[in-house]
Amino acid sequence: MIIESVNNVQNLVNEVKDEVVKWRRYLHRNPELSFQEAKTSDFVYQTLISFGDLEVSRPTKTSVMARLIGDQPGKVLAIRADMDALPIQEENDFDFVSETPGVMHACGHDGHTAVLLGTAKILSSLKEKIKGEVRFLFQHAEETLPGGAEEMVQAGVMDGVDLVIGQHLWSPIETGKIGIGYGPVMASMDTFYLTIQGKGGHAAMPHQTIDSIVIATQVVSNLQQIVSRNIDPIDPVVLSVTKFIGGTTHNVIPDTVEIVGTTRTLNSSVRESLPQRMEEIIEGITKAHHATYTFNYEFGYRPVDNDHSVTSVIEELANKVVGKQNVIQVRPTMGGEDFSAYQQKAPGTFFFVGAGNTEKGITYPHHHPKFTIDEDSLEIALKMFLEAVFEF
Ligand code: NI
């Protein structure tokens, strides 16, 4: 992948940085939900075509891939950006707010897409110097299970790839800093659906019913004991019940209670043990109280698990881009990311580029109606991708 004598990354960045901001604002104004990124992917496709020298394709309906195949043989590096927005009504008041009611780029994916476009533009002008291939993955649907990454992998975008990198603009970190993590940095993200079937009846005659609410509350509280009593405390696990629906009024014991929730882990074997342990508890409690149940456990994203050697190279590059004192080791988060799907196919790393700015009032968390990114972070993100291409 090495390019001989790329003189100055800053000069290259200067050539596109205004355009990257322009693209980011265009995307911010025109957000689209997961799996519905029609306009976004058309925009990305047309923009990539305009650079020339790229092989541009549509691996799935709303994703885009661009291949820059160098004139000399070498490694294949994949770089990923996600493109989808969220079902949130924007509450910002700058002049490029979302023009689509109820939909907003509230996670910075507009910035990711713009930065990867900028990277592709610069590199496509350097084709003759490239050894191997740079593959740009513009992914749909990061925010919604089953996620776009898995679909793209199945469409073959990772075939022949030697390593993969991705970054997230991250408002909890100040602009000018970069967060690096070794090993698992983001959690698996699974979902469960449970229905407790009792026997409804008059609230004044509970003995004639099988009270699904009383049974369901026991199930919920006992599920918490998996985390506190069955799992090694050194292995973080989250088991959250996030929906609990039963009943209609004050004097009727309902037939059923519906429960939905999520589990998060950083360790794949712990993750695989959860559905069975959960079902043992559900089965035991419902059986004891003469109720029945249906239980579905859906595996979602795997943990994002950063390869040690790729991460150490990225850390060195971050030291170069922002200075060693501004490179921080991030603690793992129990949030999920489908970047993990690419890591099943090739070693890779996912890192965090600071995009918050307290002085500018850019402090809102991701997925907040007032979320935004400090646009100064775009330049840093761009430098990281370029440095990575030159290095690998
Ligand atoms: Ni995101």
What are the SSEs and their pairings?
Layout: H1 9-29, H2 38-51, E1 55-57, E2 64-69, E3 72-82, H3 109-124, E4 131-139, H4 148-154, E5 163-174, E6 178-180, E7 183-186, E8 189-197, E9 201-202, H5 212-230, E10 237-246, E11 252-253, E12 256-265, H6 268-288, E13 292-301, E14 304-306, H7 308-322, E15 327-329, H8 340-343, E16 348-356, H9 376-391
Parallel strand pairs: 3-4, 3-5, 5-16, 6-15
Antiparallel strand pairs: 1-2, 2-4, 6-16, 7-14, 8-12, 8-13, 9-11, 10-12
Summary?
The protein is α/β, with parallel strands linked by helices and 392 residues long. The protein contains 9 helices and 16 strands. It folds into 2 domains: 6-187 and 304-391, Zn peptidases (Aminopeptidase), CATH 3.40.630.10; 189-301, 2-Layer Sandwich (Alpha-Beta Plaits), CATH 3.30.70.360.
Give an overview of the whole structure.
By secondary structure, this protein is of the alpha/beta class. It has two domains: 6-187 and 304-391, 3-Layer(aba) Sandwich (Aminopeptidase), CATH 3.40.630; 189-301, Alpha-Beta Plaits. The chain is 34% helix and 27% strand. It has nine helices and 16 strands. It has helices at residues 9-29, 38-51, 109-124, 148-154, 212-230, 268-288, 308-322, 340-343, 376-391, and strands at residues 55-57, 64-69, 72-82, 131-139, 163-174, 178-180, 183-186, 189-197, 201-202, 237-246, 252-253, 256-265, 292-301, 304-306, 327-329, 348-356. The strands form four sheets. Strands 1-2-4-3-5-16-6-15 form an eight-stranded mixed sheet, with helices on both faces. It has a four-stranded antiparallel sheet with strand order 10-12-8-13, with helices on one face. Strands 7-14 form a two-stranded antiparallel sheet. Helix 1 crosses helix 9 (376-391), helix 2 (38-51) runs parallel beside helix 3 (109-124) and helix 3 packs across helix 9 (376-391). It is elongated, with a radius of gyration of 24 Å. The chain starts with 8 loop residues before the first helix and ends with a helix. The structure holds nickel (II) ion. Residues 107, 109, 142, 168 line the site of nickel (II) ion. Nickel (II) ion is lined by residues 107, 109, 142, 168.
